[in-house]
Design goal:
332 residues; alpha/beta; Spore Coat Polysaccharide Biosynthesis Protein SpsA, Chain A; UDP N-Acetylglucosamine Acyltransferase, domain 1; 2 domains; seven-stranded mixed β-sheet; four-stranded parallel β-sheet; 8 helices; 26% helix; 25% strand
Length: 332
């Protein structure tokens, strides 16, 4: 474990996701060849935490089975019937050692573009300042639906107030809570024991831990993220599509920087699990999925769809070809 690695990362994945209108749990919907949850877990694993916990409740069997197959290091913990993010974290802490000390990172299973580098910056600020609570925030032109970050005149983070509980003046604030935190483990345990459900939704709010820390005179701060996509959550199909498109744009941009040619990025889709060598050329409409690997100088024709296949260096895949490594006679 690195010196700045957290003692634990808690990924919250217990929500119903009703706005997805799907029999599939929200966190198991996919973009870029991975579930939303696996994107979040991959970012968390990059921190090399001592403990990695995923809090589950809705469709728990499906989520737990997915974790076992895709992220066996993660430990699933059940949230009980008490609602709220604060209760979810309390359930996770109950499954961790009582003498746990150091930073505890809390993130969400439906924020797929959040990366390890941003989490590392959050932990570094938390440790460097000796904060009790450090939170990720961003500023939005339309902050509707998000918790607002309240600051003192000197800029100190004082509290987070949820949209439903905010006054008109507070609702005018554009800096919002991203729902990603680094907590001091000892403060987190003490604060959670004092939280109630006296709010508009009758839930245990994790955000109240921020106010508890400030009220006790403990240091708090926020790491402001200027790239709002990194903290964009997914609550419905439209957001899923937008996040998928943005992830694909970033994936293609990264490959092009490494020497891959993409004729038309707007129509080309490449999963994050695909491997491409230098001077590969992807023609318009190409779709590369799963564990596909393309050798140096290979050319993938227009509208070809490749799934879990190895294409050797210098090969040419014909336009409209369909190759699937799991289907006999179609892989190469």
């Amino acid at each position: 474990m690195a010196p700045t690695s957290p003692a634990a990362v808690i990924v919250m994945a217990a929500g119903k996701g009703t706005r997805m209108r799907s029999a599939t749990p929200k966190v198991l919907h996919e973009i870029g060849g991975r579930s939303l949850l696996c994107h979040a877990v991959a970012a968390a694993q990059g921190l090399d935490p001592e403990h990695l916990v995923v809090v589950v409740r809705h469709e728990r069997e499906a989520v737990v089975a997915h974790l076992a197959a895709q992220a066996p290091r993660a430990v699933a913990v059940d949230q009980d019937e008490v609602p709220g993010t604060g209760r979810a974290v309390a359930c996770a802490l109950a499954a961790l050692p009582e003498d746990l000390s150091g930073p505890v990172v809390v993130t969400s299973g439906d924020v797929p573009l959040l990366d390890t580098a941003t989490l590392e910056a959050l932990v570094a600020q938390h440790v460097g300042r000796g904060d009790a609570v450090t939170l990720l925030t961003t500023s939005l032109a339309d902050p509707t639906g998000y918790g607002r970050v309240l600051r003192e005149p000197d800029g100190t983070v004082r509290a987070v107030v949820e949209q439903r509980d905010a006054s008109p003046e507070q609702q005018a604030i554009t800096e919002v809570n991203a729902g990603v935190y680094a907590f001091d483990a000892a403060h987190l345990r003490r604060a959670l024991e004092t939280l109630g459900r006296d709010n508009d939704q009758g839930e245990v709010y994790l955000t109240d831990v921020v106010e508890r820390a400030h009220g006790a005179g403990l240091p708090t701060s926020a790491l402001v993220v200027t790239d709002h996509w990194l903290v964009e959550g997914c609550n419905d199909r439209a957001q899923l599509a937008s996040l998928g498109a943005e992830l694909n744009r970033r994936t293609l941009a990264a490959w092009m920087e490494l020497g891959v040619g993409v004729v038309d990025p707007s129509s080309t889709w490449v999963d994050v699990t695909v491997e491409l060598a230098q001077d590969v050329l992807l023609e318009q409409g190409a779709i590369l999925r799963g564990r596909t690997r393309i050798g140096q100088g290979a050319r993938v024709g227009a509208y070809a769809i490749l799934t879990d296949v190895d294409i050797p260096a210098g090969a040419v895949v014909a336009p409209f070809d369909r190759l699937d490594g799991d289907v006999p006679g179609t892989g190469r």
